[in-house]
Amino acid sequence: MRRLLDALYDGAAWLAALFMVALLIAVLLSILGRQFHFNIAGIDAYAGYLMAAAGFLALAHTLKRGEHIRVTLLINALRGGARKGLEVWSLAMAALLALLFAFYSCRLVWQSHAFHDISTSNDATPLWIPQLAMAVGTVIFAIAFLDELVLELRGRRVQAASGEALRNE
């Protein structure tokens, strides 16, 4: 199960990276279009879709690598059961919020599909298509938080510490 979850997080990160490369290409095409006087309809809208997809798909991988911003002032002052209790409570609340975020993201995709919502930009893209990346990203993010919660409850959670704080101090 561990390998499957790690593969899920890594796969989402690779997909996010692919969307980032596609975003770069879209921005370059937009710049070239302005310089050489040609227009690709909807390229700005597609760049926005790609940026959102990259951000949402990278959430779980970023969480699992300890790169999300985390306020540790209080938790570092605690020891033993109090610290574990606060960790469990924090992870449970984060998992709940992530599940709600995933639920409403999936619901938004469903509603956009059911109501035939389209982009107001000149590309007229059905909105459920770019929203799908958001829904998938938030579902994987919720799974990652549930994973962290279960690991904490079982005493197997490893704190992935970002080296960023060490480089800034």
TrEMBL record:
GO terms for biological process: C4-dicarboxylate transport. Its main location: membrane. One of its GO terms (cellular component) is plasma membrane. Keywords: Cell inner membrane, Cell membrane, Membrane, Transmembrane, Transmembrane helix, Transport. Pfam families: DctQ. The chain crosses the membrane at residues 12-32, 38-60, 88-110, 130-151. It is a multi-pass membrane protein. InterPro entries: DctQ, TRAP_DctQ. Residues 24-154 form the Tripartite ATP-independent periplasmic transporters DctQ component domain. One of its GO terms (molecular function) is transmembrane transporter activity. The keyword Cell membrane applies. It is found in: Cell inner membrane. It comes from the Bacteria. The complex comprises the extracytoplasmic solute receptor protein and the two transmembrane proteins. Belongs to the TRAP transporter small permease family. This is TRAP transporter small permease protein. It comes from Xenophilus arseniciresistens.
